[in-house]
Design a protein that fits this description.
Largest sheet: 4 strands, antiparallel
Helix content: 40-55%
Order of helices and strands: HHEEEEHHHHHH
Oligomer: single chain
Shape: elongated
Number of helices: 8
Low-confidence stretches: none
Strand order of the largest sheet: 1-2-3-4
Mean pLDDT: 96
Strand content: 5-15%
Structural class: alpha+beta
Distance between the termini: 49 Å
Number of strands: 4
């Protein structure tokens, strides 16, 4: 790895480790295979959002051209959010693309991703289906996001009738995650989700 990038990441890693966010459990950062180019981040779901109580794991790949180019970051934890792909975990956030500046650090990037969970941008979506639900039925969106947080990120809030609907489809032989995606996509209408899965 280019020396400038490695030095910079080591410094930023220490900055994150000493931060109040690590102390209070809001952020976590660790190396993958003792490499400074691959890291694993974790952010806590912000309070008073459907992600509250969840722990979300992020894959962070640092290019050799860092800090002149942004790190590549995606969610490894599945999440229901307009600006994150529910399939790949790709994140739509300006500072990870054209608004990147060399002055930004891993800590500020992680905090920006966490802030995105509190303030979605449905008009600049990464996931059109989720954004549509967010714009058209915010209550249903919040429940769906809460359900995904409970199932995939260890969040505390169980949405029982969603769990039961997923169970109905798994009883028909559908993969649990596919069942959840179909139901979430079709606003939890069992008939439409079933049609889509079996057509």
């Amino acid at each position: 790895m280019a020396n400038i990038a490695a030095k910079r990441i080591k410094r930023e890693f220490k900055e994150v480790m000493k931060s109040e966010e690590v102390a209070d459990g809001t952020l976590k950062l660790e190396l993958v295979n003792n490499s400074w180019t691959e890291l694993k981040g974790q952010i806590a779901g912000p309070t008073e959002t459907p992600y509250e109580g969840g722990k979300f794991i992020l894959e962070i790949k640092v290019p050799e051209t860092y800090p002149f180019n942004p790190p590549k970051i995606r969610f490894l934890t599945r999440i229901w959010h307009p600006n994150v792909s529910s399939v790949t975990g790709a994140i739509c956030l300006d500072i990870l693309k054209d608004q990147w500046a060399a002055a930004l650090t891993l800590r500020t990037v992680l905090l920006s991703i966490q802030a995105l969970l509190s303030a979605a941008e449905p008009n600049d979506p990464q996931d059109a289906v989720v954004a549509k639900q967010y714009r058209e039925n915010i209550e249903l969106f919040n429940l769906t996001a809460q359900h995904w947080t409970n199932v995939y990120a260890g969040g505390p809030n169980l949405v029982l009738h969603f769990v039961q609907k997923v169970q109905m489809l798994t009883d028909m032989g559908v993969d649990e995650h596919q069942a959840r995606v179909a139901l979430s996509t079709f606003d939890w209408e069992l008939e439409r989700a079933t049609e889509q899965l079996f057509s």
